[in-house]
């Protein structure tokens, strides 16, 4: 079969415009139109540079107007369907942003605790001031963390249809002496309130697992501060241990370091548009016992 010839067709109109979205034109009976771009979830007016509908995911981003486009940073981000932002390389400012959205559910999940967990994760991972090289260029790594607290029923519903790599599902429960855990390279886990979730390094440690990191054995010398992936109960140098006869690590000494950042990106491949996924989607929802 022969290919389409522009000569045979005289001229072929390209309706795919900015960001590859179809321009709505001549939709009225008189041949006129609004010239809006169809993003699927909402319509964009390129003449005014605004949306005419609120972001359907606006409840995830309370700090932004529901009519905002990509956090008001179109150089760093693109919006593929009018909903959530997608990460791209910022070549001008030489930054790479890792975006994660945490969905907290369970009998002990509440908005106040969720906020403390999310703030701690962002603070500790950004505190490393990490850098990675891509294409011979050094980029600063930033972590953008958002969150919401939902019912178990809503978490199940969300997980059943989720296709967004940024979404991570955490059940929050009081599990006694059991440990918090996460899928390595997945997007689900369980957080135990006995681990002082709002004031410790545990959530950041678990987030490391979601990004594919395994346990390390750091903290063996006075100058070797434990990194974020050193597990609880690891025997460390007394400088990094709990008070008492045991040399078990004091988790509060753990810090995200450059090696952790490098490990996160060790198997990450960016596409031609500068996008990449970290981990994979499992969408597992755990029961109240962590099963």
Automatic annotation (TrEMBL):
InterPro entries: MetalloPept_cat_dom_sf, Rhs_assc_core. One of its GO terms (molecular function) is metallopeptidase activity. The lineage of its organism: Bacteria, Pseudomonadati, Bacteroidota, Chitinophagia, Chitinophagales. NCBIfam families: Rhs_assc_core. Residues 190-203 have a biased composition (Polar residues). Residues 1-26, 190-210 are annotated as: Disordered. Coiled coil: none annotated. This is RHS repeat-associated core domain-containing protein.
